[in-house]
Amino acid sequence: ILCLVSAAALDFRYHHSEELEQYLKGVHAAYPALTHLHSIGRSVEGRDLWVLVLGRFPTHHKIGIPEFKYVANMHGDETVGREILLHLIDLLVTSYGRDPVITRLLNNTRVHIMPTMNPDGFEATKVPDCYYTRGRYNKNGEDLNRNFPDAFENNSATIQPETRAVMDWIKNETFVLSANLHGGALVASYTFDNGNPVTGSLKGYSRSPDDDVFIHLAKTYSSNHASMYKGTGCDNRQTFPEGITNGYSWYQLEGGMQDYNYVWGQCFEITLELSCCKYPPADQLEKFWRDNKVALIEYIKQVHLGVKGQVTDKNGNPIPNAIVEAKGRPHVCPYRTNEQGEYFLLLLPGTYVINATVPGFKSMLKTVEIPDNTGNFSALKQDFSFPEVSDQIRSRVASCPKIPLYQELTRASAAVKPTVHILVLMTAMLVIFK
């Protein structure tokens, strides 16, 4: 009976903080083995930042099972994502054990859903508007999507409680893939949002080392959406071919959440703009849910792209903080193994050389042929064992610094040019003197 009550209780309207909390608690009570509900922190006004986790092992990370997240409503007046995530929860819990695809998805993925990152902003939006209200910001008047450390320039904004909570959450979980849900346009936007000459900003596009993967992720969402793939913008001025855009190409922003996830969280995140109108009338919510339902599920499956595995010592103990990256796509903040020695690399099907490095030891290279495994709900498995490393040696590595890392690269590339000339001269001189 409980299951029916929780499922039947969700209708197509806006749910304010207390109702949202009540709904999440009802779902958890009805499906205690499949869900875990917790608050990752509080807003400025003290509202809980609720996250519902769904999966076969909802309370904790299990080796080999990737972590996925959806975050909505970080701009309090952009409301569609908030409601469709509640309907996604409803779909997942009621389909588990009945629908084979959703059952396999939840058996092999741990899915975290945060319907609102900015509950104060949502409650402050008294008069819904399609364009802009003060509810966009948090209670301190800060834009949360300009509030994260930035890889390109010093972000002087004071980090807000909501931002801090999300940063800690990213640090404490091994997130592999994510999307944050916005409104005000209809497009899937991907990293980088900021840029400099190193990433191609002079050409109006800020390219990450995993640009191909990001394009694939954005297209996965847009092509499975009812109309996003058509690329027609919200007005006549703006069109997005195939319904996707590089963030920087659209407009540059500093301190964005998706760049932070990718650089410091080792998590690929895209930004989904789901409605031309930021706060549409409630009677349109059912259509928004229908338009996004398939795309939301197909996007989660992409967490199983690429390769994953464990790095262990000669006794089979996990090695945390080992660097594991695909050759030719180094991250400015190298991707490292978690406490269980695990790594997850999202890569499109193809041949890659995977390089595992334990500081102080010789790197191990393995060539892998990556198939498209998203339909099997498991990335290719490739472990690394370091026979000369004993469990006494544990690489203690400080987390990546929060300084603008790409600024350093720009300086380095400018500094390298004259150095190369000097090296050539010195080599020539040596040859002559010999």
UniProtKB/TrEMBL annotation:
GO cellular component terms given for this protein: extracellular space
CDD domains registered for this protein in UniProt: M14_CPM, Peptidase_M14NE-CP-C_like
Pfam families linked to this entry: CarboxypepD_reg (PF13620), Peptidase_M14 (PF00246)
Peptidase M14 domain span: 13-303
Any one Gene Ontology BP term: protein processing
Active site: 273 (proton donor/acceptor)
GO MF assignments: metallocarboxypeptidase activity; zinc ion binding
Keyword Glycoprotein recorded: yes
SMART domains: Zn_pept
Keywords: Carboxypeptidase, Glycoprotein, Hydrolase, Protease
Cited PROSITE patterns: CARBOXYPEPT_ZN_1, PEPTIDASE_M14
Similarity comment: family membership: Belongs to the peptidase M14 family.
The protein's name in its UniProt record: CBPM Carboxypeptidase
Organism expressing this protein natively: Catharus fuscescens
Taxonomic classification: Eukaryota, Metazoa, Chordata, Craniata, Vertebrata
Name of the gene: Cpm
